[in-house]
Amino acid sequence: MGCVMNVMRTTTEVASQDKFEEMLVVAEAAVLLGVKTGRVHALIESGALPSRFATREEVAQLLTVGRVRGVPGSGIRLVPRYAVEAAQHRPGRGWRKGRSRKPKDAQA
Hints:
mainly alpha, 3-stranded antiparallel beta sheet
């Protein structure tokens, strides 16, 4: 019998195969999610959002069309659009505004 290798792919490996046209820069992802860019970076570091670094050609294209103004020394992270859309439907952190913290039966 042949040996079958069980290979698990990481979210970074999956993101590296996504098309450039379907990727968002961190600032764009932050706007769609309604959070600051630091929170998007935290989601990337925790593994909740897949990402990859932009290639030199992609960086040049991002600069040309004006999606970024400059390139930090660490590079530009790209996040797949489908991952941002999935993250939009996740529950947020903390208690939602306007929602009572008391149990319904205790309010009477």
